TrEMBL record:
Pfam families: Xre-MbcA-ParS_M (PF23125)
Name of this chain's protein: Antitoxin Xre/MbcA/ParS-like middle domain-containing protein
Domain Antitoxin Xre/MbcA/ParS-like middle: 127-175
Highest taxon of source: Bacteria
InterPro entries assigned to the protein according to its UniProt record, in alphabetical order: Xre-MbcA-ParS_M
Amino acid sequence: MTTRRRFSRRGNIVKQSNRQLLEDSLAAAVTRLISEHDPTIGKPALRIAAKLAAFIASSVAVQTQSVQRALPTVEDNLEPLARALMVQLVEQAQGRFDPRLSRFKAVPPPAPSQYPISLPADWAGPVAGPTVIERHFGIPRSTLFRWQKRDEAIALKTGSSRFVFPLKQFVDARPADGIAALIAVFGDHRSTWQWLMSPNEKFAATPPIDALLRGKVADVVAAAGLASEHGA
C-alpha cells in the first residue's frame, strides 16, 4: 500500500510539472475553436476564455487518482458551479463596463407565453454589423441590406436603432437554407430568431437553428408552422 501511494504521488508530481504544457496546448485549441465559432470576438475576451478553459481543464487532469475518483460526485452540480463562476466574473468585469457599448447588443425580445424560457441578455448569440461582417466574411454591405430588405436574412435592431446580423445564420457566406421561409412563417425577424435560438422539445431540447444547419430544413419549417399556429 505504501509503495502504491508513493508511486501515485510521484506520478502526480510528474503530471503537475507537465500541467503548464497541457494548459498551453488547451489554450491554443480553445482559441482556434472559439475563433471559428465567432471570428468577430474581441481579442481580450478570446484570450480570457481560452485561459480560463485551459486552466480549469488542465487542473482537473492533473489531480490525484483519489480526487479523480471523487469528481463524479459533483458532476450533477457542474453547471450551477460554472454559472456561479461566470456570474462572479461578469460582475467584476462590469465594474469597468462602458455603457456606450450597449448599443452593439441586440435588444432582448419580449417573452411570449409560448416561450416560457427566460432568455439571457445575449439571447441572439454572436452578432455583428455590416462593416464587421464584410471585413471578416467578405459579404458586401449592399448584399446584406438587400437580403434584409427581401427577408432573406435576419437582422436585429440594437439599442441605438442600428441593425446587426446573427452570425450563426450564415453558411458559406450566405443565409442558411430555410431562413427566408422561417421569416415568412413568423412574420418578423426578431420572432424568427428567438424561436430558432430557443431550446425546442421537437429537436431533443436543442435550438432549431442547430437542426436547420444540419440540413433538416423541412422539419424545422414544419415545426415553425406549428409553433406559429399555436401562438396565434
